[in-house]
Give the backbone structure.
Amino acid sequence: MAGHCEQESAVTCLVREAREEAGLEIEPRDVELVHVVHHIDRAGDQPRMGLFFRARTWTGEPELCEPDKCTQWKFWDPAALPEDLVPYTRVAIEGIRAGRPYSETGWA
């Protein structure tokens, strides 16, 4: 799940987006930052920082709350991710698996 912060902390944003996008309830104390990706899609685009959090626990089962933005929720084996995964998300998952806290992608 992904989102943009709306005059709120990153963890508050995560909790809100989990509820809005997947119907999950997450307590702020149950998350930890596991990776940061500094990325740019194309030369001239606005650079972005992606913060990746791990929720140790949550309440509810993932449900499709925004079908216009997401087609399904599925848990994937990190060693067998789908081909059409957003590129910076793939970079983050590879970094997390390798124990690196930070990655960059898209920079020339």
Notes: Strands lie at 31-39, 48-55, 102-105. The chain has a mean pLDDT of 93.
